Amino acid sequence: MKKKTMRKAKVDPDQPIGKLTRVENFLPPPEELLPKKDLVKITLELDKGTVEFFKGAAEKNGNRYQRLIRTVLKSYSERYKETA
Question: What pTM, to 2 d.p., does this model score?
Answer without folding.
Answer: 0.54
